[in-house]
């Protein structure tokens, strides 16, 4: 019973971390129709910015705010200076470019911040709880992670479902020419999409780093698990991203606890293959228009 409870709690907290990264992928997909594989190193850069602020003597929350602002700026600059000048007629071109950015940003981070491991503080406690005779591996920082992801989810759902801005961003992503004819400033919408996605990615980077060690590659594994979570839930669904992250977290935690840590990556690959075979658009994909 104790082992099962620990596996479930670890699965939920890890799943929420995967969900945070998946939400960033969903946001960039919904607003630009691009899968940004450079999302992780971009988030890593903003995490280092937050760590620099914290090491200078400021509080975690000031570092958090600076990281979000840095994410907004970094996302906007990447779209304005790089992505915009790539031929988007073929959707594969921007994706290949983001893979190149993945490598370049890693190299730049290693040069600027170094390759050594550095401790990142947690805003809340890292001690588990004891309820009666049962030790519960749920920390204050874990609760903070869950709440933060749910707040981001609510914000994204509200943005795309209840605001004209969200509708305009989606219209710009689906059909730029028609949107321009309707008076939409497509360039600004695409820049805003990249900026907001980078800010959400910054939240993911900070949640992953809290109470652990960071280095230029500390988010690399999350790229795989977060991407699988986004595909599992559906790249077009914020709710699906969170559900996919939770399913991934609990499933991989069970594999790690009952089978072995060495098979976690293999299990993620199996999940991805099964989803692509049985439901390629994801569990929460919207119904597509029928073509004749």
Automatic annotation (TrEMBL):
GO terms for cellular component: plasma membrane. One of its GO terms (biological process) is amino acid transport. Its main location: membrane. InterPro entries: ABC_transp_permease, BCAA_transport_permease. GO terms for molecular function: transmembrane transporter activity. It is a multi-pass membrane protein. Pfam families: BPD_transp_2. It is found in: Cell membrane. The keyword Transmembrane helix applies. The chain crosses the membrane at residues 6-27, 34-54, 60-83, 95-114, 143-162, 189-211, 217-235, 266-287. Belongs to the binding-protein-dependent transport system permease family. LivHM subfamily. This is Amino acid/amide ABC transporter membrane protein 1, HAAT family. It comes from Rhodococcoides kroppenstedtii.
């Amino acid at each position: 019973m104790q082992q099962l409870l620990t596996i479930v709690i670890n699965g939920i907290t890890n799943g929420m971390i995967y969900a945070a990264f998946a939400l960033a992928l969903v946001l960039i997909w919904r607003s630009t129709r691009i899968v940004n594989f450079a999302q992780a190193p971009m988030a890593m850069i903003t995490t280092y910015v937050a760590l620099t602020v914290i090491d200078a003597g400021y509080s975690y929350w000031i570092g958090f705010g600076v990281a979000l602002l840095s994410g907004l700026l970094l996302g906007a600059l990447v779209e304005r200076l790089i992505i915009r000048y790539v031929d988007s007629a073929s959707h594969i071109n921007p994706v290949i470019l983001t893979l190149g950015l993945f490598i370049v940003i890693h190299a730049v981070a290693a040069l600027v911040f170094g390759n050594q491991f550095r401790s990142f503080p947690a805003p809340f406690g890292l001690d588990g709880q004891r309820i009666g005779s049962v030790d519960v591996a749920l920390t204050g920082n874990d609760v903070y992670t869950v709440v933060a992801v749910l707040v981001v989810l609510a914000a994204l759902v509200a943005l795309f479902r209840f605001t004209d801005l969200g509708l305009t961003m989606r219209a710009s992503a689906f059909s730029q020419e028609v949107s321009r004819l309707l008076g939409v400033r497509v360039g600004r919408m695409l820049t805003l999409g990249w900026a907001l996605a980078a800010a959400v990615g910054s939240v993911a980077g900070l949640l992953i780093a809290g109470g652990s060690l960071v280095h230029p590659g500390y988010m690399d594994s999350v790229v795989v698990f977060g991407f699988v979570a986004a595909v599992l839930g559906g790249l077009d669904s914020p709710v699906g991203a969170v559900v996919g992250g939770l399913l991934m977290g609990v499933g991989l935690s069970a594999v790690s606890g009952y089978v072995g840590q060495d098979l976690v990556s293999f299990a993620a690959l199996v999940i991805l293959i099964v989803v692509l075979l049985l439901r390629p658009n994801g569990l929460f994909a919207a119904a597509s228009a029928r073509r004749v």
